[in-house]
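=== RUN LOG ===
request id: a7f3
mode: sequence -> structure
chains: 1
length: 274
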Amino acid sequence: MASIDPRHLAGEIASAYRDRREIPTLSSRDSAFDVDAAYAVDAELVKRRRADGHRTVGRKVGFANKAMWRALKLDTLVWAPMYDDTVRYAGDGLSTLSIAKMMSPKIEPEIVFKLRRPLEPGAEDAAAVLDSVEWLALGFEIIDCVFPDWKFQPADFVASLGLHAALVVGAPLEIESSMIPALAEALPRFKVRLMKNGELVEEGSGKNSLRSPALCLGELGAAIARRAGAEPLAAGELISSGTLTTSRPIAAGERWSAAVDGLDVAALTVDVYS
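=== RESULT ===
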């Protein structure tokens, strides 16, 4: 682990986001700054946010693509907490989003899960994972970055809140046990269309999230269980399971929408303002 003080770095990250100020990546300052050191910074950020009266309500996933792991020297995905003041619900499929306090926000369509109960140990296949899920929904993860040109290493990602700025959650699909076999089959195969101001920007698929969002959730549970000191997944947590398309920059005045084929989840639209 790097010798840099996690509390000092947590303060620097928090103030950079607050002041909308770019800072050099942490990994560029110390070659020993690795993912272990980054989770120590993350733990300090969680302490700060909780001391300010906020609750952690779930986790967001990063680097949910095995093809990237070898080049980035990862053996699993990474994660960061989400908070009660960064998650919002669009029950009718339409929401608004202020980016006034963000630097260079981007949008990612994702599948969001709510846990009914903690994952069973070793529950990594899709059906076993879904047995612990209360509902799933289409969501928009909004990410923001304090590092120049959006260039960073996995350790920088973890230490900087996982780039998490907001999560907009669409209408939930309640999961009953009879639905699980069909859902397990559908989650790797469904298609998503990402649109800006009514025009198609990109198409994605469930397989882009670690071959299936359910498998991504299972990998997250296993990775957290292996990490000493990590808070285990708990009933009621929300999991944003990795982007289904590339991340796209957003700006005030734009309307972003996502719709899915092959999975019975409602479409989601967000109007962006400053």
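=== NOTES ===
Residues 35-51 form the longest helix (17 residues).
The two ends are 39 Å apart (CA to CA).
=== END ===
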